[in-house]
Amino acid sequence: MNDKNIFLQFLYLLSSKDISKYLYLEGGAALSFIYNLDRVFSNDLDFTIEDYQLRSELFDVVEEIAVKLNKKYVCDADPNKIIIKDDKEVILEIDFYPLSAKLFSWEDKGLEYNKKGFSVKTHSLEDIFAEKISNIFQENRSEFKDVFDINKIYDILIDDLDKEKFKIYLHEKLLGKKIYKKIKNDPISLLNDRKVSFRESYASYAIKDSLNFEVQFSEICKIIKIFL
Prior knowledge:
By secondary structure, this protein is of the alpha+beta class.
């Protein structure tokens, strides 16, 4: 599904609901829509939900929006995933994760749908950068898109990023995810151990042919050396 318009329509309809006060867009969708990164687009919308007790309300709201989109609403077996689909094709996957907004940096950002402006609460680019770095060390995740995104984000942040302040922020995130102890002595060796997995993901990710895997991987190693 490559029609980004339906994603904007969904976010626009969601922004008028009270529950949007407790939702924060993150991940690839935030990079694509809010920060305008040129990246391979996926069909999932990732949110942090500040109050997990609102889970059932979120399901009701998404079902209501699905009706307006003339799509089917499916409650996935995963308790933190909702699917909107056509007869045969998944249109949107909505994933949400409980976390207090006190534990990450976020901003209000403006978007537009059909010449109508609306705002979306979203994780800051620095927070997504830290999250992407934590992703590449998680045992159950070896996705080349994280490598690609880290390099792209760093290119944007490089001139204005307070590196020392970000190091503290990143280390706190890694500690919270129980990753820091595993990588603190030699993160580059661990990254190299996972290189084959990233290469396999690179092939399946169907990234632009102009991107060279070795160059991308070399760049990410330089970034990791700066911050870890």
